[in-house]
Amino acid sequence: xxxxxxxxxxxxxxxxxxxxxxxxxxxxxxxxxxxxxxxxxxxxxxxxxxxxxxxxxxxxxxxxxxxxxxxxxxxxxxxxxxxxxxxxxxxxxxxxxxxxxxx
Length: 103
Hints:
CATH class: Alpha Beta
Shape: globular
Number of strands: 5
Number of domains: 1
CATH architecture: 3-Layer(aba) Sandwich
């Protein structure tokens, strides 16, 4: 998954023509580290989604703007808005179902 910063967010996520899965995470977060390989695997399965990582410590304004109060916090953006959100660690099957239902 590609890591992006605030200055890229509008173009890469909010103006995207396809759904974008955004993993709001922090390097110190254990559950975030556990979820990362799950999302990497799903990125290879869902060609119609883009998968992006945003470090909340480096992008605090984005975290506030999108109400990221707990991490990991995975949001699916469609048409510039949060269409769905999953907070906390989720199993590979649960995360796959989360992405699938947002096609």
